[in-house]
Amino acid sequence: MDQYKQSDATAAASVDVLPTRPLRCIVKLGGAAITCKNELETINEDNLNVVSSQLREAMIRGSCHGMDWSRKPGSSDTPSVPDNFDDQLSSDSKNFIVVHGAGSFGHFQASKSGVHKGGLSRPLVKAGFVATRISVTSLNLEIVRALAKGIPSIGMSPFSCGWSTCERNLSEADISTVIKALDAGFVPVLHGDAVLDRSQGCTILSGDVIIRLLAEQMCPDYVVFLTDVFGVYDRPPSDPDAILLREIAVHDDGSWSVLKPQLLDATRQVEITVASHDTTGGMITKITEAAMIAKLGIDVYIVKAATEHSARALKGQLRENMAEDWLGTVIRLVK
Known about the structure:
The protein is 28% helix and 20% strand. It is an alpha/beta fold. It is globular and about 55 Å long.
């Protein structure tokens, strides 16, 4: 478990002012939901397009215009600029931050070279650090491209913004650039990244850890994790006996327990597994970080991406009314 040691996010943040408008939501695009995790560096185009559309509906009312005028790699088409741009975006557009995982981008390179374990003096680790960043930043570009069909999104890499760790704990995280981007009307799009580590040279910073820091410092109304399954299960979802945990209660000390459904077998334990190639802790990290966010009084929804259930979560429709037909997991503070 020490391999996935978590960050002291609060102590790391550097922020003088908050955004001028409240932060509505932080969204995590799970790597397994937006990429084909068993196919190296392959994007799940269908899911990404649906998720991008749902995000636009949740963030912006009214018409949306394409903002990506670049020529796509391998394309012979000349970029076209719309003639009917509004002078400004809708005044009631909502502040969102997007953070995405790596999925089939970055994990292979990081795991193969041992970047998460450190040791930049070794040529293999240094090469792996470079390869990991090339991979995750290329994914970030494609996600920004997809969002830019209507969302003024800006890619931001933690490494390039000066974020770093010490003993795998987040030690420096200047979020002032994120705040400035929000105030300028942009949607920051961050991602899990390879970063420098003061004690071991380098490591992998998980997107889930980034979300917790941003939530602690910027207090969004709610947080949504979009995954490739309907939520958190008491054992691997592939197990035919797996049960979807509808509501997880977080206590003041950070511990958590299942509130719904009440498991009939008192001896049944919640089993969380981590894929062998996952250098960021997988579902263990996700639940731990989600519980720390919920401890702040911020509801966290874990839901399957590109479904009607994810659309409802993104719009904030679940905050007051948790409908029985909604499929997902809500993690919230016990009141």
